[in-house]
TrEMBL record:
Keywords: Antibiotic resistance, Cell membrane, Membrane, Transmembrane, Transmembrane helix, Transport. It is a multi-pass membrane protein. The keyword Nucleotide-binding does not apply. The chain crosses the membrane at residues 27-49, 61-81, 102-130, 136-158, 170-188, 226-248. This is Transport permease protein. Pfam families: ABC2_membrane. It is found in: Cell membrane; Membrane. Residues 25-251 form the ABC transmembrane type-2 domain. Its main location: membrane.
Amino acid sequence: MATHFLGDTAALTGRTLRHVTRSLDTIITTAITPIAMMLMFVYVFGGAIDTGSVAYVNYMLPGILLITIASGVAYTALRLLMDMQGGIFERFQSMPIARSSVLWAHVLTSLVANVISLVVVVGVALLMGFRSGAGVPAWLAVAGILILFTLALTWIAVIPGLTAKSVDGAGAFSYPLIFLPFLSSAFVPTATMPGPLRAFAENQPVTSIVNTIRDLLTQRPVGTDIWTALAWCVGILVVAYVFAGISYRRRIS
C-alpha cells in the first residue's frame, strides 16, 4: 500500500511539475512582489528604521521569505481549482490510484516551486548586501523551518482550491497571509508599536518564526522562540491537513 501511494504520488507530482515548468512566469511572479517589497523597504524606509547593529536587509529578509511563501501557495489553490473544473479529479477516481496522492502531488509541487522562489529572493538579497556568518547547521535549521511553514500554508491553500467557485475566490485566501508579516516583528521591532497592536504582533505565529530565522542567520541565541515557531507550524499543518482531507472527501463523494 505504501509503495502504491509513493509511486502514484511521484507520477502525479511529475505531472504537476511539468505544468509549472511550462509556465515559469508563475515562479517569477511569485518572486517579483517580495523582491519589490525588499527593494522598497531597504532603500526607501530602511534608513528611518532603527534595528541596532543589524543591517536592515538582514533584519527584514526573514519576513520577506515568509511573504514569498504566502504568495507562492496561492498558485496551489489555483492549480487545484483548475483541475477540479477540468474534470481531472473525476478521471483520476476511475483509475487505480491512491486518492490522497492527488493532493500530495500538488503539495509537493508547491514545495518545489516555493524553494526555487526562495532561492531567487535570497540571491537578490545577497546582491543588496545581505550577509550571514551562520554555519551549515543554522542554515539547515532555517531551511527546515521554511519547508515546514511552506507545507503548513500549502495545506491551507488546498482547502480553497477544493471549495472555491472561482479563480478569484481560490486566490483570495492568500491576502491575509501576505499581510500578516506586516503586523509582526518582520519589518520593525514590536517595541515601537502601540499597546494592543504590540500584544497581537508578539503573540501571532509570524513573529516567532521571523525571530527564530533572524537569530539563526545573525548567530544570536535563539531561546524559546524556536519551540514556539515549531509549535505554530506543526499545529497549523495538522489542522489544515485535517480540514483539507474533509474538504476532499466531501468534494469527491
